[in-house]
Write a structure and sequence with these properties.
Helices cover 47% and strands 17% of the residues. The strands form 2 sheets. It has a 6-stranded mixed β-sheet, with helices on both faces. A 4-stranded mixed β-sheet has the order 4-6-8-9. The longest helix has 19 residues. By secondary structure, it is of the alpha/beta class. Helix 1 links the parallel strand 2 and strand 3.
């Protein structure tokens, strides 16, 4: 299949998928999500033992969801957009093969959520992570409220989401959001080396190990994700959401009125 926003490269039994929308810093719009969904369905997991997801270029993994697309959504449309992203990320999370996120540059909002849907995250030294959605009048909508707390703990997750602060790669490593940090020029080599080390092991055993870890840890994940979908959609019924996204698109300070 030909993709507009994905670059696919197979290295032996390792597949590298790079999201490529340079004009928007690889932001996630409906078409990018649709391509990710189709790609996840198309992976030959008998031939591919490890998947690496990254962003095309050095500036951004995924800068977030496409705010210009979200800015006009109503509650029902917001719910549908959030559920679309959450469903795609859940599909990636539950692939039978391990998935490594090689985070190069910005991983904000939906980008951070995509990275968290992967089994392992490694980052370049210039990477930045955050869930800044509350500054736009919404909450994380692609399962961020569910996964961030599970990865870094409740207190740190609440601080990051409530403040919307962006953290650097070294801080992400300290709190356990990423496994390792490398110089930009070494990131993909390190990701492929890790993938090949995993791929050299017994593939069925690796798959069973992933299944056990996910099933034992995420027994209530689908319920948590569904609840987040509902609350994300409700954000689009507020005036604050319209104000936050209009302010962002017009490069001005938002004036939230709690309505």
């Amino acid at each position: 299949m030909d993709y507009k926003y994905l670059k696919i490269n197979n290295i032996d039994n390792v597949c590298v998928a790079a999201i490529s929308a340079p004009k928007s810093l690889n932001a996630l719009n409906s078409q990018v999500l649709a391509e990710l969904d189709a790609f996840a369905d198309s992976i030959d997991t008998a031939a591919v033992r490890v998947l690496i997801i990254t962003g095309d270029g050095e500036k951004s993994f995924v800068a977030g969801a496409d705010i210009s697309e979200m800015s006009t959504l109503n509650e029902q449309e917001g719910f549908a957009f959030g559920k679309r992203g959450a469903d795609v990320f859940r599909k990636i999370e539950t692939l039978p093969i391990p998935v490594i996120a090689a985070v190069n540059g910005f991983a904000l909002g939906g980008g951070c959520e995509l990275a968290m849907a992967c089994d392992i995250r490694i980052a370049s030294a210039n990477a930045k992570f955050g869930q800044p959605e509350v500054g736009l009048g919404i909450i994380p909508g692609f399962s961020g409220t569910c996964r961030l707390a599970r990865i870094v703990g409740m207190g740190i997750a609440k601080e990051m989401i409530y403040t919307g602060k962006v953290i650097r790669a070294d801080e992400a490593l300290r709190i356990g959001l990423v496994n390792a940090v490398y110089p930009q020029e070494q990131l993909m080599d390190e990701a492929v080396a890790m993938a090949k080390k995993i791929a050299a092991n017994a593939p069925i055993a690796v798959r069973y190990a992933k299944l056990c870890i996910n099933e034992e840890y995420d027994l209530q994940a689908d319920k948590a994700i569904s609840y987040e979908n509902t609350m994300f959609g409700k954000c689009f019924a507020t005036k604050d959401q319209k104000e936050g996204m209009d302010a962002f698109l017009n490069k001005r300070q938002a004036n939230f009125r709690n309505e």
